[in-house]
Every structure is written in structure tokens, then in C-alpha cells.
Specification:
alpha/beta, CbiD-like, 2 domains
């Protein structure tokens, strides 16, 4: 597949989804089963409207079935499923039936577009596979989609948190992977949030990643209230307002949170940084000497910058100013529609500061019973 998009001055290659791979592998296997001839490529029109011609990586012909595989190409998208083999084993059957095999996850929680107990083959990929099986005269097929390395790769995805066990999901709504798209990550986090809503009432704990999650749990809060939101702080604050949430406890490492103090609501390093510059600015406001500020400015990490600052500041006052500003920036971003409290820490120094309402919020809403 040789389709490209130009983004931020770069030529980026489109890819195709696991759903496209599954449908194409099924088409190759059905063709081989019916004709006895194994195609080297298959053409497939995806929901986006594009006609793709994909190479068939492997074909295995047995007396009672054919198994074909397509290798996933995510293009220039940072996708952990890139280069996986997606396989389809097809045999004649009394009716058309599509099941999941090795490496395709099983759904164990509500809130997903697939029923509990079923293989994690999403509706659009399922429709794509079903369309391949149509109009084959009087023939019907049993199709088993498998991903040989799926169980291992699934550990690097959101699937374990979403309640999808023992494999990856067969995904895709357009059939195409747009390079550098972050929509899939946002969608996955929203699915997890929707699963949580029944026990949240009006309050939630959010954190950028595992550091914040682990730190929050150590404070004695119940994990069922915790949602990791990655770098999409502004996006998820807006979604929380829409959902009716009123109280938010935001827990995170200073390396992420200091960016919000500077007004950045996507904290990915490729989108925003200014960590060290912001610490320098706060140091200047608190009377730190130019000599120390130069050392802070040359620090590689926020932990290193803090080590330079500590001898020159009143620790409590300094970090209190930062967490109060983070609270102010976040609440202003959603026009005061959320009450937000903040806990900030670092890996080396531990607790750095928290806003004044943290204790009451934890006690009233989040305490682990």
C-alpha cells in the first residue's frame, strides 16, 4: 500500500488495520478453498472507499481447510500491532460463522462494542469479513481469525485494562490507519471511562500514567476510581464536564504537571515541553539567584532541576504555588465547571505539594473501604 499524507512538513505513509488484514486473509483463504489456486495478492475495498491490493504472506492448504495470512502494515503510525501476521483459517460449514482463535482477545467486561464472552472482533471488521463470504453460490464457511503473536503484543495495549483477555482486538472503522493518529488512544480511554461511570457518581481520579496511578493507590484511594488519561489532559477534562462529573483529583509527576502550569493541555513531549523553563520562571519569582537558575536551566530532567532548586527555595511555598496554578489553569480550561484538586510528586523527592481540598475530597469520595 503506497498512500501518503503530508503532515507538519513530513511525508507519512498510511497503513491498514487489523480488520482489513483479517478480511483480506479470509478472502485469500476462501478463494484458495474454492479454486484450489492460492493468490499472491488480494484486492479489497475498505469502508473508507479505497481499493487495496495486499500481499498474501503465507498460504497453508490442508484436506479440510485453508489458512492464509496477511502482514499488518501500520504505515508511519506508532502502532504496536505493526508487522503482526493476521491469519484466517477457512473451511466449509453448514452456515457462515466467524470466530476468534489464538491471539484474538476475549471480551470479559461490559461497555465494549462486542458482547461478553465473544472474540474481540469489532463490528466493522466483522462486517468486512462477512461481506467476503457473501455470494459464493451455495457455499458457507467457518472462519477462524487468529494472530500468532497476539497474546504477547496485547500486553502492550489497553486491552488488559479494558477486560479483553489473551489477545489483541481486531479493529478499524475505515480499514485504514492514518499515520500519527491519536484517535484510537482517546477512544480506548473513553471506553474505559464509560465502563467506570456506574460506580463513579460525580467524582473521578485521573493521572497521566502509571507513576500517578501507583502514587494515588499508595495514598489509600480505591483503584476503581482511577483513570489513566495519557497526555490528553484538556480533551478529557472537556469529556468529564460533558459526562456530568463534578470533582476531579489529578495526581501526577511534576514532569507532566509542570507543563499544565504553563498552560499546555497536551503533555506529550512532541507537542509541548517548557518543563525546565517553567521551573526557571517559578524560581525567578521566588527570588532564586541567577547562578542557581542557570544550573536549573541546564538540567536534563525535572528531577535534576528540582535538586538544583531545593537549597535555594522554601519547598512548601514553592511547590504550593505550582499546584495552585495547575488547579487554576485546569479549572479555567473548563470554565469552572469542575472542582479540581491536585497532588504532585517526583520520583526522587516524593511528595511535592497538593491543593488545599485534596484531603477532604479523598475522604468523602475516594477512600478505599
Amino acid at each position: 500500500m503506497e498512500q501518503y499524507i503530508y503532515r507538519n512538513g513530513k511525508k507519512l505513509k498510511y497503513g491498514f488495520t487489523t480488520g482489513t488484514c483479517a478480511a483480506a486473509a479470509t478472502k485469500a483463504a476462501v478463494t484458495t478453498l474454492l479454486t484450489g489456486q492460492a493468490p499472491k495478492t488480494v484486492k479489497l475495498q475498505v469502508p473508507k472507499g479505497w481499493m487495496l491490493e495486499l500481499s498474501v504472506e503465507t498460504t497453508e492448504i490442508k484436506d479440510d481447510y485453508v489458512l492464509c495470512s496477511i502482514r499488518k502494515d501500520a504505515g508511519d503510525d506508532p502502532d504496536v500491532t505493526h508487522d503482526l501476521l493476521i491469519s484466517s483459517k477457512v473451511q466449509f460449514h453448514e452456515k457462515n460463522k466467524i470466530i476468534g482463535g489464538t491471539g484474538v482477545g476475549i471480551v470479559t467486561k461490559e461497555g465494549l462494542p462486542v458482547a461478553i464472552g465473544k472474540a474481540a472482533i469489532n463490528p466493522v471488521p466483522m462486517q468486512m469479513i462477512e461481506s467476503v463470504l457473501k455470494n459464493k453460490e451455495k457455499h458457507h464457511f467457518l472462519v477462524e481469525i487468529s494472530v500468532p503473536a497476539g497474546k504477547t503484543v496485547a500486553k502492550k495495549t489497553f486491552n488488559p485494562r479494558l477486560g479483553i483477555k489473551d489477545g489483541i482486538s481486531i479493529l478499524g472503522t475505515s480499514g485504514i490507519v492514518e499515520p500519527m493518529s491519536l484517535d484510537a488512544i482517546k477512544d480506548s480511554i473513553m471506553i474505559e471511562f464509560n465502563q467506570m461511570k456506574n460506580h463513579l457518581q460525580d467524582s473521578i481520579i485521573i493521572c497521566p500514567g502509571n507513576y500517578g496511578k501507583d502514587y494515588a493507590i499508595k495514598q489509600g484511594v480505591d483503584e476503581k476510581y482511577l483513570l489513566k488519561i495519557s497526555n490528553f489532559v484538556g480533551f478529557f477534562l472537556e469529556r468529564l464536564v460533558e459526562s456530568g462529573i463534578k470533582n476531579v483529583l489529578f495526581v501526577g509527576h511534576i514532569g507532566k504537571l509542570i507543563k499544565i502550569a504553563a498552560g499546555n493541555f497536551n503533555t506529550h513531549s512532541k507537542v509541548s515541553d517548557a518543563r525546565i523553563e517553567t521551573l526557571v520562571a517559578y524560581g525567578a519569582l521566588h527570588g532564586v539567584s541567577q547562578a542557581v537558575l542557570k544550573k536549573v536551566f541546564n538540567a536534563v530532567t525535572t528531577d535534576g532541576a528540582i535538586e538544583e532548586l531545593l537549597p535555594a527555595i522554601n519547598r512548601e511555598i514553592f511547590f504550593q504555588a505550582i499546584v495552585d496554578q495547575i488547579k487554576n489553569k485546569m479549572e479555567s480550561h473548563v470554565y469552572q465547571d469542575l472542582n479540581i484538586e491536585v497532588i504532585m510528586f517526583s520520583n526522587k523527592q516524593g511528595f511535592l505539594g497538593q491543593t488545599k481540598g485534596v484531603g477532604a475530597l479523598i475522604h468523602e469520595k475516594f477512600k478505599n473501604s
